[in-house]
Write a structure and sequence with these properties.
The chain contains 19 helices and eleven strands. The protein has helices spanning 23-40, 49-76, 99-102, 104-110, 129-144, 146-159, 174-178, 191-206, 275-292, 301-316, 326-333, 336-344, 346-365, 399-407, 430-433, 436-446, 450-456, 461-469, 476-501; strands spanning 114-118, 169-172, 209-216, 221-228, 230-238, 241-242, 250-251, 256-263, 324-325, 369-371, 410-414.
Length: 502
């Protein structure tokens, strides 16, 4: 602001319609207004961290805008487009599913807010839950950003802890939601606003569907099923109210939020996969997802995106894992404008090289296996944390040639494997083994209504409904009572499940 535009010592002219005896009061009022506005726009003071953060954020925003404008300008000049070659074709490209470009016909029929998946009857490889979870997470990241992807990963990690994940309800409380890394830690934001944001992200994720295509070539027919990935059962906000004079109490910002959500019924379409194999796939993906959630998506954005991409790549070729070229990975993780800047400017290239090595080191600390082969990843490009004796990679005069050699390096990265051994559920006693779904089936065999069971247990009828839906846990004393009434039917239901799993 130019001080000359708002001089503080200049006598303000008196309006013609203001009496002369009111001049002092009028001048005082205007000066107060000006002083208040000046205080709101106060300059940075020494030792004022709040103002420092505000100005630093403003400068960062201006820099980001200028960079984006430069990228747009480059694109407008036709220097960057889809056909622009970032590096010589010297490494194998990644083969990733691209539903948004290859399934336009399906989107014309069924809409846009879905992730496409094709089921082949009798082919269990098309019914792998972990691959569906990985593909959905990658597409959500691509379309909606890391915040939505992290919400999806959190739901999956909670689902893997459920005894009956296909029917139980996942419950997330305020503490679970506030510890989720979906906002910048340094940004000053009230708890109520954080809870509103996280609620919006959950609603977005639970509005997505899975489109399952089933083709019948013999009859020239198709079936396209749109099934929700997740279903929000409840979103419960809580807080204080303020008493209003002459009106109803007004709610303040929410201080608590509980979200209850369940997996959609799309897993029922995977008839070729046993429940035991489904659970194993879920446990493996959930274990890897828990490591990704430990990565700060704002300070380690490249690391977080790389981990999510690798979880998908690991499932696209599980039987024949291949090394990944750095260039092929970065083409998926960075914009073409950023890659072109790396080629033009040494400082950008050196910063990208450093971020890459830091990302690999962090993944290794989280349990990922990083393998370097000198034949495809020369020692002078290897990071110092892996090979302290390496001479170190120094930018040559021709940084473009140096970049080409680095992007062609290939590295093996394997996500952590779930190693916890669970006891065989068939070895558990009957009162610990049955689930809410088993209870519903046993009641049907017995010909007993849910309301009658509730009466005999001296409970509200809604409690039995909660048990069957998985929204409430069955207490040990009630399990004993249920087994006394429905023991034979429960044993029959569980025996039938064991035969299907064999």
């Amino acid at each position: 602001m130019n001080p000359e535009d708002h001089p503080t010592d200049q006598i303000l002219p008196l309006p013609a319609d203001v009496p002369s005896d009111a001049a002092a009061d009028w001048q005082t009022s205007v000066q107060r207004i000006y002083d208040r506005k000046t205080a709101e726009r106060r300059t940075i003071g020494e030792g004022d961290p709040q103002r420092y953060r505000e100005v630093a954020a403003e400068l960062s925003l201006r820099q980001a805008l200028s960079e984006s404008e430069r990228a747009v300008a480059l694109s407008d000049d036709a220097l960057i487009d889809d056909s622009t070659t970032i590096a010589p074709v010297g490494y194998p490209p990644l083969r990733l599913p691209s539903p948004r470009s290859s399934n336009a016909d399906w989107r014309e029929i069924a809409g846009t807010t879905f992730v496409e998946h094709t089921i082949v009857k009798g082919d269990a490889s098309t019914q792998r839950l972990d691959r569906v979870f990985a593909q959905v997470t990658w597409e959500v990241l691509d379309q909606f950003g890391l915040e939505a992807a992290y919400v999806l990963l959190l739901l999956t990690t909670r689902l893997m802890q459920a005894k009956d994940p296909w029917n139980e309800i996942v419950e997330l409380n305020t503490q679970d939601l506030l510890t989720l890394n979906i906002w910048e830690r340094d940004v000053e934001m009230s708890q109520g606003k954080r809870l509103r944001l996280v609620g919006n992200w959950f609603e977005l994720v639970c509005n997505l569907s899975l489109l399952i295509n089933q083709l019948d070539a013999g009859r020239s027919r198709f079936r396209a099923l749109r099934i929700p990935l997740w279903v929000i059962e409840e979103m419960e906000y809580g807080g204080r109210v303020t008493a209003a004079i002459g009106g109803p109490p007004q709610p303040e910002a929410a201080q608590d939020l509980t979200i209850r959500a369940g997996l959609g019924l799309w897993t029922e379409q995977f008839v070729a996969t046993r429940d035991r194999d489904k659970k194993a796939s879920l446990l493996q993906f959930g274990h890897q997802a828990s490591t990704v959630l430990q990565i700060d998506p704002y300070r380690r954005k490249l690391t977080a995106k790389l981990a999510i991409l690798l979880m998908l790549l690991d499932r696209l070729s599980p039987d024949d894992p291949q090394p990944y070229a750095i260039g092929a990975l970065l083409e998926q993780l960075e914009s073409k404008a950023a890659l072109m800047e790396m080629r033009r400017r040494k400082d950008r290239l050196q910063a990208a090289f450093s971020r890459w090595n830091t990302s690999l080191q962090m993944l290794q600390r989280l349990g990922w296996t990083i393998g370097f082969d000198a034949a495809i990843y020369p020692a002078h490009f290897q990071p110092a944390w892996h090979n302290p004796e390496a001479t170190g990679a120094h930018l040559q005069t021709d940084s473009s040639q140096w970049m080409d050699q680095w992007l062609q390096c290939q590295v093996r990265i394997t996500p952590p494997f779930y190693v916890r051994v669970e006891p065989d559920p068939r070895d558990l006693p009957l009162n610990e083994r049955f689930t809410g779904r088993n209870l519903s089936q046993a009641l049907a065999l017995k010909g007993m209504a849910q309301s009658k069971l509730a009466d005999q247990l001296q409970l509200d009828r809604s409690m039995v409904t909660y048990w069957i839906k998985g929204a409430r846990l069955i207490q040990p004393k009630h399990r004993e009572q249920i087994c006394a009434m429905l023991g034979a039917e429960l044993a029959q239901v569980l025996e039938a499940e064991d035969l299907l799993d064999q």
